[in-house]
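Notes to self after the call with IL:
- keep both proteins in one doc
- input above output, always
- annotate only the second one for now

Protein 1:
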Amino acid sequence: MNTTPPHFGALFAQLGLPDDDESIAAFLVKHRSMARNMRLPDAPYWSASQASFLREALTQDAEWAVVVDQLSKALEDPEVTEQTRSLDDS
C-alpha cells in the first residue's frame, strides 16, 4: 500500500486536466475568483465526475484530501500556489 501523499500535479492528472506547471498556473488564474465563498467540489468549472472525486476525497479524508485542500487554498490565495509548487519540487 502506497502511503506517500500525491503531489499537486498528480491531482490535476487524476482530474484529467493538463498537469504541467504552465497549465496549472493558467487554471489557477482563470478560476481563482470563482473559488471564493464556495466549497471546491461545488465550483461550476468541474465536470460531475471531477466534482464527485473532489467531494469524496474530502469527505473520506482520503490520501488525496491534503492535496485537494491545497488546491482549494491555491484558488483563494496566490501565495499558496508558490508554496505548493515548491512542495512538488521536493
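Protein 2 (the one to annotate):
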Amino acid sequence: MSYTPNASEAKFLTVERFKYSRLETQAVIEKLKAANFADLALLDQIEKEDLFLKIRARSYRRCKVQFLVAIPIIFLGLVFKDEFSVFYLTTAITTYFLISSFFGLQSNKISKLEKKYSTNSTQNY
C-alpha cells in the first residue's frame, strides 16, 4: 500500500521547498521513503537537484574568489610589467583565470533563496 503525503509534506516536493532548509527537506524525503511513497522517482529527482544545486553554489563561490583575486593581480602585473618580465606571464595567466571565472559566475548563478537553501539554513522565509 502506497503512502500519499499530506499538505505539509507535499510542499517539500515542489520548488516551494526552497523556502525551507535543506535539512528539513531531507527529513521529509526520508520519511516519505520509509512510508513507501508511490513516486520514488520524484524523490530521487529532488535529491539529485539538491546535489546539483549544492555543487553549483560551491562552484559559484570558487569562481567569485578567483575573480576577486585575479583583478588586483592583473593590475599589479600591468603596473610592474616594465620592471620584471615575469609579470607578462603572470598577467597572461591571471587574465585566463579572470575570463574563466567570469563565465563560471554567469553559468552558476543561483537565486538568493536557493543560496540560503544550499547552505543548510534553518530559517523559514
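Annotation: The CA atoms of residues 6 and 89 lie 61 Å apart. The chain has a mean pLDDT of 85.
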